[in-house]
Amino acid sequence: MLPTSPLFPAFRLRAASLALSAVVLTGCMSLAPAPDTPPLPVPEAWPAHLGSGTDGAHAGELAWQAYFTDPLLQRLIETALENNRDLRVAALRVEEASATFRIQRSDRFPAMGVGAQGGRARVPGDLNMSGRSQVGGEYRAEVGLTTWELDLWGRIRNLEDAALQTWLASDAARQAVHLALIAQVADGYLGLREIDERVAIARQTVTTREESYRIFRRRVEVGSTSKLDLTQVQTLLNQAQALLTQLEQARTTQLHALALLVGADPGPLPAKAPFDETTVLAELRAGLPSELLVSRPDIISAEHQLRASDAHIGAARAAFLPRIALTGSFGTASSDLNGLFDSGSRAWTFMPTLSLPIFDGGRRRANLELSEVRRDIAVAGYEKTIQTAFREVADALSAKHWLAEQLTIQRANLEAQSERARLAKLRYDNGSAAFLEVLDAQRDLLDAGQQLVQARRALLSSQVALYAALGGGTLAASNEVDGATSTPASIPSTR
Fold first, then answer.
1. pLDDT tens digits, residue range 272-284?
2. Torsional class of 154: left (φ above 0), alpha (ψ -120 to 50), beta (otherwise)
């Protein structure tokens, strides 16, 4: 046991007092601007003609599994969330920001270390008073406190807060990529189902026209009809066959695009027909534009970036003020290794430093101006993100309203074209109309069927876009991870 020293209690008392003062002082001041979110640069409500209404589910609280109920689509989305490279990169960005935050956070705490050193030296006789050469040594073992800055003006704390806000922003950006991926997979799947239905219609048309061509060719052989009618039937058949090949190529391309989104082999995707409005998704209510601030992950990310820029301003302002740093050590020292822990070998150092910047060629002023300009950029980016979100919701609401009207019209048009084709065939069979009238009716009937399928897909795609524009599932996902220690939400603010 080391013997007591009258100096040691005094040293411990002074060190404890200084440490306590440092802890108190480090929480006293911050030079960062007060949090001030800009007002919404959009109207307070959606345009009345969009029919946003108040009925329906809240998109942010509706998980994607509850919105997209198709089992095959759910399997594709789950595979995409596991394998998509863009989402993987976004998740790694979150881990990168987390590590950066922890590095910056460590600056608030003193760094302690244990060290030992020893050495021997020979001094020639002509360099000392005795005229004889001497051999001596010094050995030390100590616990040291490296240079620790007292954060009197909040510089370190603001840098930590900036790193935290950057972490939160990157996590919100990951959520935005997550939501965008779900919407892209859903829309790609709807595109595939649309092509499947159009292919089914085209194949049925090709089969029907092949039979018609066979019948008319037999009629030409027996002389009951002209070769012109046969040529017209062949033209219709060729058109249907060309459309079918185009659709088959489009299906292959759509399947490749879907596989890229999924990030892995999507497996067998059999054609599913019919593709119609029976697959209508859940009704969503738009709410108010202000609700986007808490449900849209891209807006949340932009707000955290704004807070980070405020913290950088506080750190830049603190750079103009004096800095106080503490350095010290406590241990033992002796000229002889054997006496390193003997009585009276106790040694300590305590060295506070004060530095006051006087001239640096305008570096600190320019750094402050840079921080202020970057905050203005963050404000503009935040406002633009809100405006973009407002437009996306408005466009989705408008598309949903007018596409529903178009679908009704296309359905009525298909019924009319079907009746026209039937009547034209009857007129031709009775000899009261030319076959060209039948051909025109059949061609228009095929076009009407294709347009109806396209209108159905467009309506469903508008519902997918509305779900994504309203921040679908964001609040539900936040509730699932609330309280998890591995998420940025569990880290308290440093302000």
1. 656 655 555 788 8
2. left
